[in-house]
Amino acid sequence: MSQPAFLGLLVAIALLAGFGGYGFYHLGQPSEPAPAQATVTPASSNGVVGMARPEFSLPDLEGTARHISEWDGDVVLVNFWATWCPPCLKEMPAFVEVQEEYGARGLTIVAVAIDEKDAVRDFVDTYGINFPVLIGETEAMTVTRDYGNRFGALPYSVLYDREGKIRFVQAGELHKDTFVRELTPLL
């Protein structure tokens, strides 16, 4: 390899390493505070807010079919996510905290992973997820569309009340303070 080609290769490697380091640095940084008002999403403008939650059934990590009606009577956050999605990973620790704090008052978070079972199991074991996790690849994409996610955004969260009526939708990362603000009046 000639010296100019070798130097070009070194420059390319250095640039890739720099971009990778930048990305990992920002992945670990605290998220910015949530806006003061609720986020308007394609789903809410699409008429999903105020509608009854759609029915669905997906397997859990043990392969047992779980139906969304299992949590009827609870306030439920259905969160569509994936292990390869950086904003999804950023919001999970807050979900664990909120489930722990509000679970006794009737909150259930149901995480629907659009991912492979082994990757999800490793994530759940590593991060101590304390709420139901359902698995689905193609099937989960159908469910997320039924919940108003026309563009396939991840993460995508839908909060519904004890009667099963959708009250709040968030495309993109759901910040803890926004989640608690929308959740509290429903408990």
UniProtKB/TrEMBL annotation:
CDD domains: TlpA_like_family. It holds the Pfam family AhpC-TSA. The keyword Transmembrane does not apply. Residues 28-187 form the Thioredoxin domain. GO terms for molecular function: antioxidant activity; disulfide oxidoreductase activity. Keywords: Redox-active center. It comes from the Bacteria. PANTHER family: PROTEIN DIPZ (PTHR42852:SF13), THIOL:DISULFIDE INTERCHANGE PROTEIN DSBE (PTHR42852). This is Thioredoxin. It comes from Thioalkalivibrio sulfidiphilus (strain HL-EbGR7).
